[in-house]
Amino acid sequence: MSAAESDAGADGESLTVLEFAFGSQRYCMRIERVVEIVRKGSVTPLPNTPPHVEGVMDLRGETTRLVDPTRLLDVDEDGAKEMVLVLESGDEGPVGWLVGDVHRVRRVTTDDLDETVGSGQIKGVFTDGDHVVWIDPDDALSSR
Questions:
Q1: How far apart are CA 93 and CA 83, in angstroms?
Q2: Contact at 8 Å (CB) between 134 and 28?
Q3: Cβ atoms of 17 and 137 closer than 8 Å
Q4: Under CATH, which architecture does the 14-142 domain have?
Q5: d(CA 56, CA 60)
Q6: Backbone conformation region of residue 24, classed left if phi is above 0, alpha if psi is from -120 to 50, else beta
Q7: Which helix (H) or strand (E) is 139 found in, with range?
Q8: Whole-model pTM over 0.90
Q9: pLDDT tens digits, residue range 1-12?
């Protein structure tokens, strides 16, 4: 684990996360997973794909698969999703998560994480003010 990911100490592990939203609910993931943030461009639908795959878009000459995480997480939110969090490329190429809004990058500590509400792709909820749900995108994508 790098120094940017963890400052182990008496106050728990320190993490840098990107905070984003679907509707009024805020979520976060480790910033290290995000390659870039772009506005959604023209989307080409793909036939015979799982319901959470919106289609693909061209991102500077590279085909990027677009995923609707609200469908992966079974979240009832139909608001506009105009931002794309482009994640590290895996075996299937670049993946973009469609989100409604990107709020901020911030440091959090595991002392503020309530893991009792976590399961599967939900790692828990940070409770230092707002309740921000911590998501693991790998777990979310592999669960479907």
A1: 19
A2: yes
A3: no
A4: Beta Barrel (2.40)
A5: 13
A6: alpha
A7: helix 137-142
A8: no
A9: 434 444 444 568
